[in-house]
Each structure stands twice: as structure tokens, then as C-alpha cells.
Specification:
This protein is an alpha/beta fold and 505 residues long. The chain folds into three domains: 2-112, no CATH class; 119-327, Aminoglycoside phosphotransferase (APH), C-terminal lobe (Aminoglycoside 3'-phosphotransferase, Chain: A, domain 2, Alpha-Beta Complex), CATH 3.90.1200.10; 332-504, P-loop containing nucleotide triphosphate hydrolases (Rossmann fold), CATH 3.40.50.300. It contains 20 helices and 15 strands. It has helices at residues 2-22, 61-74, 119-124, 130-146, 159-176, 181-196, 198-206, 239-242, 246-259, 263-277, 283-306, 312-327, 344-355, 362-365, 379-398, 412-425, 438-451, 460-469, 475-478, 491-504; strands spanning 27-31, 35-40, 43-48, 83-92, 95-98, 105-111, 210-212, 222-225, 228-231, 243-245, 332-337, 358-361, 402-406, 429-435, 481-485. The strands form four sheets. It has a six-stranded antiparallel beta sheet with strand order 1-2-3-6-4-5. Strands 12-13-11-14-15 form a five-stranded parallel beta sheet, with helices on both faces. A two-stranded antiparallel sheet has the order 7-10.
């Protein structure tokens, strides 16, 4: 019965392609395991296959109509203007007519776009840039902030459900991968982490981290069109795959960038997302989700390889990415030091990509610190901001990531507190002393205040107070300090070389 419906649909799709071509439109046809997509000029039509699978049910026309409408509605937030509605297809399978009634089939109607717009293609051709990463980070953080939370009492996001889903995924992957030792190792790691993180999963669920997300944010579902970043094709057929932790949603993109050889862009994306939304506590579960996403995509790749698509190599890269995420815990505390306008934050941003670190910036966190006014730089306010920075830094290091504490740290007590934090977590620490001439610092402060885009509120008056009241680094601190002149070309490259021995200690 199902085969007969699919044959009728395939005939309809072929006839529709021929009809559009006869009308003079260039038509491209793409097929996945669950749909056909026809691209004709400025329009694209996605027809869902009449399938009933373990994870979806498109078997009847009413169901396909329902899920087409769901797809259009759910993708509006992350892809505004890309989805145009649900198109009715009348006539007969041999002579279909778009827009005719009564409908014998339906399709998701979209604005077409070139394949070169897809991030998967942009990465492959070395075209994906940092501005797109930053734009996507802001888009996703705002989307997550406004997304609906899982209803109270819902089982969505329960630790037991997360563990069961992970166990099932490994069980399905093992035979596809030939019962590989690598998958077995990852399965053991996943099982242990699911048990260790059970309390954290529950805390995240109670705190509202389980939200109506996208659910499938790999690079082939993200595009840059007319200089605007969008994400499309979110999960519409299974609530359990879409109502997930917001860090699980982000993990898809991070994982996919890494397996495509773009670890620097992944680090930038993570840092920009966290800076925008402030969910540093989510780092505790992020590594688990990165591994889980890699395992899911490896399973999909191997299933497609069975359909004679060349995906086995991709599955190997995904498993390597999962194993790297599972075994990489390299915490460190990097203490930025310098005056306002010295270039600390710019240097810190470069270190994020080089080290895969998380930057926590005082200028951003000042606005999130209770009781601190934006323009207030008195001692009590500064103490509160620095206390918040150290609290967040502790969460980052505890999750196994290097943290860059991006603040002036002009008082000895502030630096000592960071050193104690590192010692308490058993990780190395280093001070990065960023220097620039007073004239350059004043010019930079004036430029960023005129631009109005930088979160820093420091002005020349604040700089004057800093220059007059800073406590210099003493001998023990200098032994763990690397100096960088932000006015020199290639400064970060030399800085990294000087940092290696201190971070390895």
C-alpha cells in the first residue's frame, strides 16, 4: 500500500517537473529519504513522502497537510520571508496543477535560494566568515530567549528520557557501524555522563532550559541569503526532538562546524552565543550534547550510505568529532590585565578561537550584575562585578573549558582571587598583560564611544583613574605573566607561543 502511494507521488513529482520545464522554468529536483524538493525559478516546493516511519507519519494527505502547515509556522522565527505558505496541488498524478482544487497533494512553498547560500557549501569553499557566525549567535540566542518553555509537569527534558534516547541511539548505531570499538567507547562514556549529569539535567529542566527549539541545526540547514543569516527546516514531526535544551540546539551547529574542520568558528560561535544570552551554566551539559549530536548525525550518514549515497566517510568524521568532544577537558584560567582601551577584549577574542576558550567580559556582565548601575565604577560595584566574573569562570572551568576572564584586573586582590580559583579547580593560570600607549588607549576609547556599538562604558575619566590607581604586577605574578603589545602586528601569534609553557604546567 505504502509503495503504491509513493509510486503515485513519484509520478506526480515527475509530471510536475516536466510541466514546469515545458513552461520555460529551469527546474532542479532534490530528493531526501522523506521528501522531494522542486526548485523552479524563484519558487521551491517541498512534497513530503507518504511514509509512516518510527519517527514520523506522513502517510495520509491530512497528515501531510498538517505537517506542511507546521513547518511553515515553526520556521517563521529563524527564517522570516523564506517560507511562503502551503501550496495545494490538484488535477491528477499524471497531470498535476499547482494551486488547483480539490487537492490531491500539498507542498511547502518556499522562496528558492542557490545551494551556494548553504553554510555546508560556504564552509566547503572557505567562504563562511566571522560576521555570519556573530550574526547567527545573536539570532539563535534571541530565538531561544523568546521560545516557549516546556509545560510544567511535562516529561520533556527529564534526565531519564535523555538517557533512554542516548542509549537507543547508540544501540541503533552499533550495527550500522559494524559494532565498532569507537562506538562502544562512546556508548560507555555517554552512559557514565548521563548518570553523572542527571541532577544537572533536572536542574536545567526546572530552570526552563527545555524550550521549543529548532532541533536540527547542522550547517546544511543554515544559510546566508542577501547578507542575512537564517536557519530553516526545523523539526516539525516529533515534539521530543524539538523540545530540547537550548544548549542541545546550539550543540548541533558546534558539532557540525568541528567535524567540517572549523573549530575556530565553532569556538567563536559558542563564545558569542554565551555572551549574548549569558547561559554559562549550560556548559556543564554542552559536551554531552555535542557527542549526542555527532552520534545522531553519524547514524543518519550511515543509513544514507546504505542507500548508496557517499556518506560513510562523513560518519567517520562525526565519530572522530564525538570522541574528541568526549575526551577533551582542558580547563585553564586566563586573566586579562590592562587599562581600558589597551586592546584586552580584542586580544581575548582572538584567544577564544586559538584556544577554544570561553571569554567572560566585565563590560557585558556588568549589566547583568544585581545592584550595579551601568555607569558606576566605584569599589563596591567593581567588587560585585568581579565576584560575578569569578562565579561564571568557575562554572566554565568546572565544565572543562579554558576561561578568559576579560577585565582590567588592576588590583592585586582581583588577580589573587583568579589564581585561587584556578588552584581550587586544579588548572593552570596565566596573566595576559595587554599594553598600549596612553595616546592609543584614549583614541580607542573615543572611537568606540563614537561608534556606540561596544558594551564598555569606560571613558577617558575612567582611564585617568586607572592610570593613577593601578597596583603593579609583583615578582610572583610576573613569573606567570605574558606581555603583549596590542599595537604590534602579529602580537597574538607570539603571545600564544609564550603562553604554552605556562598553560602546560
Amino acid at each position: 500500500m505504502a509503495e503504491g502511494r509513493l509510486e503515485q507521488q513519484a509520478a506526480l513529482v515527475g509530471a510536475l517537473v516536466a510541466q514546469l520545464r515545458a513552461a520555460g522554468a529551469p527546474v532542479a529536483l532534490y530528493e531526501t529519504h522523506v521528501s522531494w524538493v522542486l526548485v523552479a525559478g524563484a519558487d521551491a516546493y517541498k512534497i513530503k513522502k507518504a511514509l509512516r516511519l518510527e519517527f514520523l507519519d506522513y502517510a495520509t494527505l491530512p497528515l501531510r497537510r498538517h505537517y506542511c502547515a507546521q513547518e511553515v509556522a515553526l520556521n517563521a522565527a529563524l527564517a522570516p520571508g523564506l517560507y511562503l505558505g502551503v501550496a495545494e496541488i490538484g488535477g491528477t498524478p499524471a497531470a498535476p496543477r499547482l494551486g488547483a482544487a480539490p487537492a490531491i497533494e500539498v507542498a511547502v512553498h518556499m522562496r528558492s535560494f542557490p545551494q551556494s547560500a548553504l553554510w555546508s557549501e560556504r564552509v566547503a569553499h572557505g567562504q563562511l566568515g566571522v560576521a555570519e557566525i556573530d550574526q547567527f549567535a545573536a539570532l539563535l540566542a534571541r530565538f531561544h530567549a523568546g521560545a516557549a518553555r516546556a509545560p510544567s509537569g511535562s516529561p520533556l527534558g527529564e534526565a531519564a528520557a535523555i538517557a533512554r534516547a542516548g542509549e537507543r541511539n547508540v544501540d541503533e548505531l552499533l550495527p550500522l557501524a559494524g559494532d565498532s570499538a569507537q562506538v562502544e567507547q562512546l556508548g560507555r562514556w555517554r552512559r557514565g555522563e548521563a548518570a553523572r549529569l542527571a541532577g544537572c539535567f533536572e536542574q536545567r529542566r526546572r530552570g526552563g532550559a527545555i524550550r521549543a527549539c529548532h532541533g536540527d541545526l547542522h550547517c546544511a540547514n543554515i544559510l546566508t541569503l542577501d547578507d542575512r543569516v537564517m536557519a530553516f527546516d526545523c523539526i516539525e514531526f516529533d515534539d521530543a526532538l524539538r523540545w530540547i535544551d537550548v544548549l542541545h540546539d546550539l550543540a548541533f551547529t558546534l558539532m557540525d562546524l568541528r567535524q567540517r574542520g572549523q573549530a575556530r568558528l565553532a569556538a567563536r560561535l559558542l563564545n558569542a552565543y554565551l555572551s549574548e544570552g549569558g547561559d554559562y551554566a549550560g556548559l556543564a551539559v554542552l559536551r554531552y550534547y555535542v557527542v549526542e549530536c555527532a552520534l545522531v548525525r553519524a547514524k543518519v550518514a550511515l543509513l544514507r550510505a546504505r542507500q548508496r549515497e557517499p556518506r560513510a566517510g562523513e560518519a567517520g568524521r562525526l565519530l572522530d568529532t564525538a570522541l574528541a568532544a568526549a575526551t577533551a577537558r582542558r580547563g585553564a584560567v586566563i586573566v586579562m590585565h590592562g587599562y581600558s582601551g589597551s586592546g584586552k577584549s580584542s586580544i581575548a577574542r582572538e584567544l577564544v578561537e586559538e584556544l577554544g576558550a570561553v571569554q567572560i567580559r566585565s563590560d557585558v556582565e556588568r549589566g547583568r550584575t544585581a545592584g550595579v548601575e551601568p555607569h558606576c565604577y566605584d569599589r563596591a560595584s567593581s567588587d560585585a562585578v568581579y565576584a560575578r566574573l569569578r562565579g561564571l569562570a568557575g562554572a566554565v572551568v568546572e565544565a572543562g573549558y579554558p576561561v578568559i576572564v576579560d577585565a582590567c584586573h588592576l588590583a592585586r586582590a582581583e588577580r589573587d582571587a583568579c589564581a585561587r580559583l584556578a588552584d581550587e579547580h586544579g588548572v593552570p593560570w596565566v596573566i595576559v598583560d595587554v599594553q598600549a600607549s596612553p595616546a592609543t588607549m584614549r583614541a580607542r576609547i573615543a572611537q568606540r564611544r563614537a561608534a556606540g556599538h561596544d558594551p564598555s562604558e569606560a571613558d577617558e575619566g575612567v582611564l585617568a583613574l586607572q592610570l593613577g590607581g593601578a597596583e603593579p604586577l609583583d615578582a610572583p605574578e610576573l613569573a606567570r605573566t605574558v606581555v603583549v603589545d596590542s599595537e604590534e602586528v602579529g602580537a597574538v601569534g607570539r603571545l600564544l607561543a609564550d603562553m604554552q609553557s605556562l598553560l602546560a604546567a
